[in-house]
């Protein structure tokens, strides 16, 4: 029986795609680059902000045609814009709040683990969800390896005093599936996020869910 759930943020708990694209394209414009279509960001995000900056410049000008100074400059602008209004254009997924409330009522411990910077992660979660919904909430921190390293997930398991095999890890990308699997946790890949079902299955998702309510069904049934 699962005793806890760890959730990814972007594309899992909330739809942040338009928000990320908005700030990323604004930073690109300030640095003299063309904008990128919003839908393309589905395949650029998920591996941390530094990787996002590289992916954006790879998209518009090709690999090796920019310097680390270019990355640093754009990252500084992007961070300033994002931190000024982290919930801008962020929307909820239907059924997510109700699902979390039912899990909470049943005594399931819940945590957030994101590759988004920690301050923006906590700001978004604090704005979108009722206080106390999550026992722990972590974004990317300098002292903890980013996903797909299992370090963050295992630290959460340790803080919750729950064995990894009793935790369900929920996300929408191959990065999330790899993270959960590396931590010894069962994984649930969600189809309302940023990536296709094939990507989730290829990275060994134990469950594929089409709507948030199915997460509760998996946990409530104690499926293993």
Side by side, the strands of the main sheet go 5-4-1-6-7-8
Please summarize the sheet with the most strands: 6 strands, parallel
Rounded to the nearest angstrom, the radius of gyration is: 17 Å
Uncertain regions spanning at least 5 consecutive residues: none
Q: What do the pLDDT scores average to?
A: 95
What is the count of β-strands?
A: 8
- Alpha-beta classification: alpha/beta
Gap between N and C termini: 7 Å
* Helix residue percentage: 40-55%
How many DSSP H or I helices? 9
Basic shape? globular
Reading the helices and strands in chain order gives: EEHHHEHEHEHEHEHEH
Assess the beta-strand content as a share of residues. Answer: 15-25%
Write a brief caption for the model.
44% of the residues lie in helices and 16% in strands.
Summary keywords:
two-stranded antiparallel ribbon, 224 residues, 8 strands, 9 helices, alpha/beta
How would you describe what is shown here?
This protein has 224 residues and is α/β, with parallel strands linked by helices. A 6-stranded parallel beta sheet has the order 5-4-1-6-7-8, with helices on both faces. The mean pLDDT is 95. Helix content is 44%, strand content 16%. α1 (17-30) crosses α3 (68-84). β7 (186-190), α8 (197-202) and β8 (207-209) form a beta-alpha-beta unit. It contains 9 helices and 8 strands.
